Queue: 2 jobs
Job 1
Amino acid sequence: MVTKDQVWQWLEEVSDPEIPVLTIIDLGVVREVALHGQDCEIKITPTYSGCPAMKTIEDDIVSKLSEKGVKQVKVDLVLSPAWTTDWISENGRNKLLEYGIAPPTDEVDKSVLFAEPPKVGCPKCASHNTRMISLFGSTACKAQFQCNECLEPFDYFKCLK
Amino acid sequence: MRALFDYVLKLGDDSLILGHRLSEWCGHGPILEEDIAMTNIALDLVGQATTLLTYAGELEAKGRDADALAFLRFDREYRNLLLVEQPNGDFGVTMMRQFLFDAYRLPLFERLQNSKDATLAAIAEKSLKETKYHLKHSSEWVIRLGDGTEESHQRIQEALNTLWRYTDELFQEDDSEKELVALGIVPAISEIRDAWKSNVDRVFAEATVTIPSNNWKHSGGRKGMHSEHLGYILAELQYMQRAYPNMQW
């Protein structure tokens, strides 16, 4: 008999296809696990509307659970409440930093217009003397920064609230 | 509900057509960072379009999904604003078009979050977070170009002169929309216009550009009367489905 806790544990083995150092649990995209007899229903939420990883995540969940013997898996996409970077676990934040990606700062988004870029620490030398190169980066969820001290160019996981 | 279907279709078509326009910059951006930025924003918009058109298909309940709505409608059935189908022009034109649109989308999504229609509210809540980044980006470029060199100032001013005539259409409210306003599903367009105008004025003051005095305005997209540009966009966008009906990959 499969339990919910087991399913949550198995889902920790599914990694994000774009940032493989994070599991989908670290990322906070799994919202709900429900069991109805032999059927398993999982609700996930997209990070960004156009995130191309969602389809892969869905397929990976189905194949992981099938590997564990759960054959009837249904994955639903839910939009509300909308995903926020606050849902990235503490563990996930540490993993990001180790991987060379600056985790989202906790800055509240005060204004959209005339706002200063966030103060982001360099994942290599920890200096906060960094500058934003571009608000958009290698994936929808990242911005490009550079450290003024050690000159390391790095990705910053944008705060989404 | 017919009125809600029409409304969601309008939002979906705006996102789809502007997303497609921005995707045309892929590999042609003035610098690598901007190439990446424009394609990122295109991705958000096409993602929003997928969600909106999927919902429109459900409301219509005639078995059309997002793909059917995107790939199998003719130009007269498209309901997007004339603004979003305008050609990319130079980088200044693209940024001005984006700014005028983002500054409208932000207050719209802010209010749609409270829509009495739960699905529309959820889509707005999600899209709003992305739109904040889009507006940040486009407003900063309008300021940087306007308050930049003589050449960049002249070009962004020309972009505004060309595009201003399409902004009236953002705030035209038809009868079916009024019906939705009365039901608390959609905000009154006058609220959106006020918020838009105040942000536009602030940014233009900083950018030292001026709104053209020529008051002639152009509209029609919301009723399916498009400029000649939409046909070319659809020819490219729909080519595969038209050439190989029902193809999948």
Note: Chain A has four helices and seven strands.
Job 2
Amino acid sequence: MALSRQIFDTVIVGGGGSGLRAALQLAEAGHHVAVFSKVFPTRSHTVAAQGGIGASLGNMQEDHWLWHMYDTIKGSDYLGDQDAIEFMCRKAAEVVYELEHFGMPFDRNPDGTIYQRPFGGHSQNFGERPVQRACAAADRTGHAMLHTLYQRNVRAHCQFFVEWMALDLIRDYEGVVVGIVALEMETGQVVIFQAKSTILATGGAGRIYHSSTNAFINTGDGLGMAARAGVPLEDMEFWQFHPTGVAGAGVLITEGVRGEGGILLNSEGERFMERYAPTMKDLASRDVVSRGIDQEIKEGRGVGPEKDHVLLKLDHLGAEVINKRLPGIREIALKFANVDPIREPIPVVPTCHYQMGGIPTNYYGQVVAPRGALGTSEVIPGLYAIGECACVSVHGANRLGTNSLLDLLVFGKSAGDHLCEWLKTNPQHRDLPHDAADRSMERLSRLDGAQSGENITEVAQAMRRTVQHHAGVFRTGTLLREGVEKIREVAKRARNTAIKDKSRVFNTARIEALELENLVIVAEATLVAAEARTESRGAQAREDFKDRDDKNWLKHSLWYMEGSRLDYKPVNLQPLTVESFEPKVRVY
Amino acid sequence: MTATLTREQERLRWRSRRGLLEMDLILQRFLDQHLTRLTEPEVRAYDALLQLPDNDFLDLAMGRKGPDDAELLPVLEKIRQS
């Protein structure tokens, strides 16, 4: 049966911050753009971003993009590509002012300029003293950004395909990406979208972890699409953790709780952070606290029937302090942990928050991959990736706070700009290959035909438990090797799922099975890359290789789905116009 | 969740996928307890709530604010208590 086909200049998979920013650039230039989203665009996960957008506007104290660049490179533990980081930090002010002109309700100073908040890691003069660099709209920065960009896109006649799930990329015989295959949830109809260019903007895949702050929609669909189409995934071992998410739920408990005097206890009632950080104790930096908690759990001093979390005690602060200074936290504990912190401790666990790795791109958003024996990176024509699903790499081994929203804006716009030029020299649609939709149709018909097989919920649970236990904060060679074996078993099960409901109309089980196929790809990439990297750098903390090893590991990992194979490429230490920031020991 | 949901219920279940994890968790509990037993007016009210931006919906679900439309209250109470 021939599938129906629609034709666009550009198709964008994902309607969050980066997808909307790129769409706007293209639609306002008069291009025919389609944005695909599993949910209504303003309900994308960008809505969860509260902290702000980092930009050296200098509205509070003197600031400079070069200082922002230094903070970003140092934060990245020197794994960030310095050309892309210079590009981002220099463009920051421009994209913030543009957003202001689009109507973004930024917080203001009395003189009318944008107010900027302090944020961890932001410094003046190469680490000398803190600087206020975060531009925010109250605690709803992501929300305001999505609404501002969405309204603007509607005005520019961008076309939205809401409640559609993209299934696969279409590559022709020369490897050029010529569109996507997508599924409409309401009807179950599968349609080919032919395009001169395709942008992946599907966000992170934090749902591979058992404890994750990510919304349920964050299933790494773009990463799965890229990997199935032969594109490698870069630096997937690097995931940012927050030390205290509510166990079993993932909702964050801010560090402010420990700032007010909350303390962490293990199953023996011991204040274990005194052992890991004798001076700072519970107020040590995020990574130190995360590692402390994770190690207590690994050594059997976790709490609960599964011994899989620790306790955050604050009842000693008294009802008055808790109600006055931490009302939001009491609300969260009651709702998501079912405990009242005035009387009982809150169960907490290190929680996955942000994906540093992703689809390898240059700072124009073009997807790049090594080609041939020389291993030089070459552009994959017609394919772009932006936002959390991409690895430019500006975050390296660890992201600086407020650089995620900045990344969306800068590289969303940059991809849009680059495409406007590219479309001038590539005005024709290329022919679709005759097997354009085969891969997608095979996956769907397997699911529709399977009479028996694995249960989606059980396989998803096994995946999340495996990743959490084996690729959590505390990593060792043994743990990771076991994890690689386990995740390969899980991946096999994920390709053998069965669903009872065979309907085509709003079949959420069918969607979840397809999402699970994408998640297990990301999970395997994470474990394989983490096992191979025998050093500690940024978010990768190996107990058996405690130090950063610049001699052997100042390089990006590239994981290929075919054969689950790893390759590497050098970090770009050469900025665009300034001198290189040489790797130094990271001290805060 | 069994495979016996109607298409309408499946649609509501998908639209309960949100941008904020907090809302995903709250609505998942609500659906597990109530989805198959929602009355027609409740479905209409729930549909209206699903149209709200995540942050506004979260304020209502956490009881920080009341709804503008009193007809939303019965379903909202069930969401708050789930």
Note: Chain A has a mean pLDDT of 95.
